[in-house]
Request: fold
Amino acid sequence: MSIGQEWQTSVDDATGGVLRGPASATMTITLDDTGPLPLLTSSASAPIPTEAATRFAFEATVGLLRPRFLSRRGSDAVPSNIARGLALAGRTLTNWSGIEWPIVLADDLAGTHFAGPYGERVPFLQMHLALDEGSMGLSTCQAAPGWGLEFDANATIALNDLDEGFTRPHAQLPLPTGRITSVAVVVDNTQRGWLRRDSIFTEALLRINNASVLLIAAEPDDEGVWRRYDESVTVLRVPHAADALPWEPPRPAPHFT
Reply:
């Protein structure tokens, strides 16, 4: 398929896809289904125009995930969501902002406890990524029977819209910035049920220069157990720290490479 006059794509449903453009610029998307959960990974050799990257990521996602992980009769909502995440590869991230959710929510403010922006794992109601070209909102969306991550290029964030002190706004979070070299997306096919609904998008690993940030649709309960498929975006600045957390249901550690 041609994406504009300068961009050409090739997609192999078994191995992945490549987007080629001027000056040898390329974006590659591959599927690894050898681990506990399927993993889609995108990487880019140079910045790719957002429209071209998103269209290519959608084409590759559909080609690689249907029919095993996406219903042939399903809507485009899931692959479009995944494509927006994968299309971040090659972009330069200039700032993170977000509305922090507490790790202990009490009936009174005195008992409410926040991890803080420097915490190893911090839940957020909503986040916003400022990029060299546009921006990206990050939150969760309900995808029966649970919640998954949602990337939305049109989303804005209202940092002053507080809930009586039970949330905290952060206009600038101490998270890595710079060029996003790759994005790995966990496609969770364990929640499809007997109706064979589409798999949901539950985790994303962003590699930014020499650092990595793991994003998971999850939040802690009153007992300190981290509930997967929940309504917050939990950020882990040390991705492998997720392996030691108590998860419910148990979390199959993704095969990140």
Notes: Helices lie at 50-65, 77-86. The mean pLDDT is 86. The CA atoms of residues 50 and 87 lie 7 Å apart.
